Amino acid sequence: MNRHPDYLLNEVDEPEDIKGMTLDELKRLANEMRQLVLERDAAIGGHVGPNLGVMELTLAYHYVFNSPHDKIIWDVSHQCYAHKMLTGRKLAFLDPDHYKDISGFTSPAESNHDFFEIGHTSTSISLAVGMAQARDLLNPDSKDNVVAVIGDGSLSGGLAFEGLNNAAKLKSNLIIVVNDNQMSIDENQGGLYQGLKELRETDGASPNNIFKFMGLDYRYVKDGNDLRAMIDAFKEIKDIDHPIVLHVNTLKGKGYEPAIKEKMTYHWRMPFDLKTGKDKHPFTGESYSDAILAELDRQIAAGEPVVAMNAAIPGAFNLKRFQAKHSDRYYDVGIAEQDCISSAVAMAVAGARPVVFQNATLLQRAYDQLVHDMALNDAPVVMIVRGGTIATESATHQGSFDISMISDLPNIEYLAPTNVEELLSMLKWAIKQTDQPVVIREPEKPLIHGEATQEDYSNIKYNIAHHGSEVAIMAVGDFWELGKKVCEELKRKINIDATLINPKSLTGIDPQVLHHLSENHDVVVTLEDGNLSGGFGETIDRYYGPTPMKVLNFGAPREFADNVPLEVLYEWYHLTPKQIVDDIEKVVHSL
Amino acid sequence: MNRHPDYLLNEVDEPEDIKGMTLDELKRLANEMRQLVLERDAAIGGHVGPNLGVMELTLAYHYVFNSPHDKIIWDVSHQCYAHKMLTGRKLAFLDPDHYKDISGFTSPAESNHDFFEIGHTSTSISLAVGMAQARDLLNPDSKDNVVAVIGDGSLSGGLAFEGLNNAAKLKSNLIIVVNDNQMSIDENQGGLYQGLKELRETDGASPNNIFKFMGLDYRYVKDGNDLRAMIDAFKEIKDIDHPIVLHVNTLKGKGYEPAIKEKMTYHWRMPFDLKTGKDKHPFTGESYSDAILAELDRQIAAGEPVVAMNAAIPGAFNLKRFQAKHSDRYYDVGIAEQDCISSAVAMAVAGARPVVFQNATLLQRAYDQLVHDMALNDAPVVMIVRGGTIATESATHQGSFDISMISDLPNIEYLAPTNVEELLSMLKWAIKQTDQPVVIREPEKPLIHGEATQEDYSNIKYNIAHHGSEVAIMAVGDFWELGKKVCEELKRKINIDATLINPKSLTGIDPQVLHHLSENHDVVVTLEDGNLSGGFGETIDRYYGPTPMKVLNFGAPREFADNVPLEVLYEWYHLTPKQIVDDIEKVVHSL
User: Fold this and answer.
1) How far is A201 from chain B (nearest CA, A)?
2) Are the CB atoms for B286 and B420 separated by under 8 Å?
3) Which of the residues A99, A207, B201, B403 could staple to B535 if both were Cys, CB 3.0 to 4.6 A apart?
4) Which residue of A has its CA nearest to B121?
């Protein structure tokens, strides 16, 4: 039910509907929309600070421009909530029953005011340049504006710079709004921010101006949360006939004190109590991340030249705790995933022991650095990767391509521990050895204890946890518990005493165990929490290809899934113990 | 035999040996080394212009600094020939019998004066920052300098910008030499070069300075080919206690008129005649690239909104010819591979028909744009990819990871034509359809004619070129001719009349044909000109995993190969018809 039937926003179905409003009405709208962002984020989680900061910018845009003829491209698009409210999707903020009708990012499937699915940073300028080029080719007389909105944090990503460089070549309309809130996901990192500060402090007048250096026109708005100022600024540059940067100073978290004080906490939040600001479902158990950090403490105490590196996401790994203890060994390069890997490679080659923390979906941005820098130079970088799993998340952040991305490359060992003791054993070995890059896939499921059955992983020895016959289950990493359940179900349903194997690695195979299995098994089953294409299972398929062994692979198909509940995904992908056993049964019966 | 026993260079075994030389002797050395670059490049091919331009810079570096205690990192490292001559590898330039003793890039395996295998651009600053950070952690009292040398062309790559941004945070020695020769591989592209031009024109005095904007110290050298000036500049900044940019103006091709006049032609050359400047083995036959461009001409004439896009490598696809005819439809974004894909995605979404030309090894630099921009948005970009093959090349440029990189992603169709007619049929369909991204793998082997057996590739229909029994050979793309030879050899040696199949696609499978094969075949063999891990063969392995069909995959293992002759690689990888048939025979006999 609509919780705010009295809101002015109820009268807005299209951006057109705000064009006749007075400044006071627009300001009222801004306040309403701030309240709605807070209510929805508190209830289901979401981006807080980025949205609170751009209410005026968004209102001014839709007041001045004519969407969707004029086209706006939101960088990362996590700040698009106000845009969604003004473009036909207000109910998803007014009515809790409809909160989940929409995604947290722009989505062409939802509205013709959205042009791309976007969730990674730094792409907006290149996308806008492409839109402008297509406009000029297909409809040379068009007066449509193309507008990119990019945060100062996203500017440090190399792609944004590539986009600026090529934007300067355009000879037609393009507006790049630099939304400068003096924050990345975390604190901004790097020299760029010194220059931006000087521009803010001189009201945009400093002669040293990176945008002008690149041949771009430039204007500055001192208070981007001043609705009048934003409307005036947009009116002035609407229909401009060349590329221009509009540098806008805004306040991240504007209108909600806790979000202003704790900008990093409120960048993105799980459900929280609006009054106390506390997490609704605080995590209190043991975590793999904490176990990893404790091990790094021990390694450093023992004299290992360990350093921890990340690219703007310390929160995902609790790295602020590491930084507090070891500030001289902590590197956050900001949103600069490529730089993170390349500099880690150099540190490893020069004798330090870098441990890189990265999310699978963001590691995609450094694929060439994995290939050309890390693998080619066989640099002993240690990396912890999270989120390379089948998960309920936005398709923009689907991380399940990681096995193909990492394990198909030469020289890299990609390990998948099944419990915390195994993970720490792998980490210790990874830090000790200097022969090759080692990537460890941090499990996403709740922490379990178990044992490590190997100390030196330079030759992977599959662990046969249970010796059975007929069917062998190879359950990798996070799917270890699933493997156990499949074994139980096989026993119960068709009385097969299956062998259960922990392969430990997504790259290496253990030919001895694989060969040995042929003696008293007819079927090998692989279970992997990731995409099947290019994955672990196919490595086993290839090994057994020329032999009589039957192999069945379970994992995710080659597709994107957008915010699908995990249990639904598992059903879709035939990943419940019952479904898996049904499939195995068919093969066993065909023998 | 040493062709120049009279050269002063013969006296140089280590950089130490030039430290006592007079300026005149050093100048003589520069001239000798220029001559040696030309002789070697003319004989076996290599990078010409980049090396001719940095003789003085390299001599000055080794005269002033103490390699390998001081560490120099060459961006791309294609300009490292003089460095190699001065660091123990002069014979590989003096003596034609030893020309091939060394690679064309820095190589730690060759010398302790080299620190990384490098062949892609824009990595040097990040690598240098990592080296400096490791120095400061491991040996806080060290006075060793870390020096990166990066060309102005490489600066447009986003990673270079990420590197500059993080370099500014360093509180210790780091020297970034910007070797500004006013060229990329081709012409520089983008606004950055307007700013650099202003810096050159003001002798570095312009207040608008991107390096200073980012908080970096800065000096300018007007003539980087003036040995005295370079020595003085290096002496001044040696042992500096903070990061500094040394902006050096050099002449690409210096000392050889043809290379100065035709900078792009002489960036990298196949063997050529030193007197006439002409190719020794000019290519005169039909080429796939020309056939593609002719088709684009027809599409444009027919009114299709086709545009051609590339990132600094028009030469690899003859795109200057396209540009000459269709300048308004031609986009070279410079060295900015990520931007190229993102802006192509936007052009496709906005209704244009972008055809992107890219090399497999450089496409690695835009992997996230393939995933997050192109695949996720299902944008109907058309892409032509070259070099995704097993090849005799530097390991830095190994392109054979392309099948895993592209075909394991959702929504993308990766097609592998076997002849020029099939390629054009695929291209026509790719441009006509608007449902999905389509990538076409341009064959690398000499052009062959044949036929297209399909017009609409939205559902891949494997072509059964010959109906046999027992064994089915699936030969993809460039390995089609190999497939034919394997069939002949199978007939000859073990009298098997094998079925021969052209699968056309590296992504999609044709379940009907695969199912049908089970009726009268026991063995399926896949032949792919690329890496097996995550490749086409494994897709077939997975399909047949639960069935009695035996599958054998042929392709490259998960490894790098550096400048290995193709016939040797084929032997290593069991890819000769005889080896393949021997392997098949073993499986057939085991049945």
Assistant:
1) 14
2) yes
3) B403
4) A372
